């Protein structure tokens, strides 16, 4: 009897229960919401309990919110909402609310950029722990967002094509649910969509490329959940951007004390716990008005990108991560197109990319050396800093090595390359030691090729086995 009851309970849970909320429809816990990826699945709270609020900001009321309420037409007609202007809707994630600071910063940058209707979605009462409940609540919030969009269509003549939904973490999936209910929705941007209970689930359960006419994703925390990664690594948009490989971000290595000292108690704890996850909205916010374009390069994976196999991007086209991602769309029918780029460890994060390939020549008695290699690339518009290309790696005569060089400025047409290196032998290789500088370790530079990541122009410098002794700098300007 006990076994039969147990089996009955399992079957009941597998088949799922259902809760209906009027014009929002019914929400069940059965398939496809029950799966291996989502073994614990509960019903969402009622829309009244979640109490989602929509705070409108425009250039006419950029500092003072105006609440839009479904069913109260006076809140629409008494607002500055302009159906002729594009609409941006921003959703927060887990354990946040609509007054969180990053949403305010994003709103301000948007209104600085253009005359938009910006609506901050506040579902704070539904985003609280436990995570399983917040996950379930996103379905109701998505339905409520879709209902408001239809209400704005009906009462003010807004068009769904002009709506752009931006969501972070769980908020990204809210945008997906809203898009699933809104035919012809213009665009959704997923800022590191939440992984737990969403990754590798059915399309109905998570944000995917069918939820809007254009879906772009920024992945920043795709490391395994077992290592406390909170974001999806699975591609789920028309275009998927993976800054710094999409798993971890530079500058997120700080401990709890340094994070609190730098960012304050609340933000410091958040940065320590979820720094990689939070970077997605920091990149997006910066991209709105930055001159640097957050250029992305189409590639199969990050290793190939770092190896220099994805530049230049002529033919395939470069992508643009962030607010302006819709300027570069894939060909019709193409989805999950992956782009890679690198960023700085602190803001401003955007960097320009240049690729340098160095071919080392060989002469009589030349040998494999070991050390750190440095380069500066100089163009007609500026120069990179002195960039460390390698740690203490081996430099083998006759071989070519490819490196990525990041710069704060677009250096323009490449004119000169400055190279240098510092010898550092392994301690147990006594014959490689440079005792008192008597051995004079030297490498020979035969050819240098540089690709400008902005215009994809290629320049080759022929150096004809120029000797470069440790500690010295050589400057090469003669092109082949």
UniProtKB/TrEMBL annotation:
The keyword Glycosyltransferase does not apply. Ca(2+) binds at residues 206, 208, 211. It holds the Pfam family PLAT. The keyword Transmembrane does not apply. Keywords: Calcium, Disulfide bond, Metal-binding, Secreted. InterPro entries: AB_hydrolase_fold (IPR029058), Lipase (IPR013818), Lipase_LIPH (IPR016272), Lipase_N (IPR033906), Lipase_panc (IPR002331), PLAT/LH2_dom (IPR001024), PLAT/LH2_dom_sf (IPR036392), TAG_lipase (IPR000734). CDD domains: Pancreat_lipase_like. Residues 352-480 form the PLAT domain. PROSITE patterns: PLAT (PS50095). One of its GO terms (molecular function) is triacylglycerol lipase activity. It comes from the Eukaryota. It is found in: Secreted. Signal peptide: none annotated. GO terms for biological process: lipid catabolic process. GO terms for cellular component: extracellular space. The active site is at residues 169, 192, 277. Belongs to the AB hydrolase superfamily. Lipase family. This is PLAT domain-containing protein. It comes from Lottia gigantea (Giant owl limpet).
């Amino acid at each position: 009897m006990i076994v039969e009851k147990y089996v009955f309970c399992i079957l009941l849970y597998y088949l799922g229960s259902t809760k209906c909320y009027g014009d929002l429809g019914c929400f069940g816990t059965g398939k496809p919401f029950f799966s291996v990826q989502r073994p614990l699945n509960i019903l969402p709270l009622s829309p009244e309990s979640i109490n989602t609020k929509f705070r409108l900001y425009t250039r006419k009321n950029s500092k003072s919110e105006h609440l839009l309420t479904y069913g109260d037409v006076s809140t629409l007609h008494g607002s500055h909402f302009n159906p002729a202007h594009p609409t941006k809707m921003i959703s927060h994630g887990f354990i946040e609310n609509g007054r969180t600071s990053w949403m305010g910063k994003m709103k301000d940058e948007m209104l600085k950029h253009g005359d938009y209707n910006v609506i901050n979605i506040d579902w704070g009462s539904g985003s609280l722990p436990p995570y399983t409940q917040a996950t379930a609540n996103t379905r109701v919030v998505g339905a409520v967002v879709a209902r408001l969009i239809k209400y704005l269509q009906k009462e003010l003549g807004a068009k769904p094509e002009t709506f752009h939904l931006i969501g972070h973490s769980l908020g990204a999936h809210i945008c997906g649910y809203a898009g699933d209910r809104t035919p012809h929705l213009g665009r959704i941007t997923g800022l590191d969509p939440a992984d737990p209970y969403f990754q590798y689930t059915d399309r109905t359960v998570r944000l995917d490329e069918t939820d809007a006419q254009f879906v772009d994703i920024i992945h920043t925390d795709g490391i395994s959940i077992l290592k406390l990664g909170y974001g999806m690594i699975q591609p789920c948009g028309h275009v998927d951007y993976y800054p710094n490989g999409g798993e971890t971000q530079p500058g997120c290595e700080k401990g709890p004390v340094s994070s609190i000292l730098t960012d304050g108690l609340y933000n410091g704890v958040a940065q320590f716990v979820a720094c990689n996850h939070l970077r997605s909205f920091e990149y997006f916010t910066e991209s709105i008005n930055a001159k640097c374009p957050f250029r992305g390069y189409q590639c199969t994976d990050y290793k190939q990108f770092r190896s220099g196999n994805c530049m230049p991007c002529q033919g395939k086209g470069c992508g643009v991560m962030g607010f302006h991602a819709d300027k570069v769309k894939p060909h019709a029918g193409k989805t999950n197109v992956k782009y890679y780029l690198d960023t700085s460890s602190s803001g401003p994060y955007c960097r320009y990319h240049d690729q340098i390939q160095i071919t080392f020549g060989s002469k009589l008695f030349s040998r494999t050396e070991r050390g750190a290699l440095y380069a500066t690339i100089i163009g007609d518009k500026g120069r990179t800093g002195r960039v460390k290309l390698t740690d203490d790696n081996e430099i083998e005569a006759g071989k070519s090595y490819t490196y990525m060089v990041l710069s704060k400025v677009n250096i323009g047409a490449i004119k000169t390359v400055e190279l240098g290196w510092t010898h550092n032998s392994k301690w147990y290789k006594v014959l490689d030691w440079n005792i008192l500088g008597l051995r004079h370790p030297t490498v020979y530079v035969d050819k240098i090729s540089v690709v400008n990541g902005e215009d994809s122009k290629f320049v080759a410098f022929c150096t004809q086995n120029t000797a470069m002794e440790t500690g010295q700098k050589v400057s090469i300007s003669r092109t082949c």
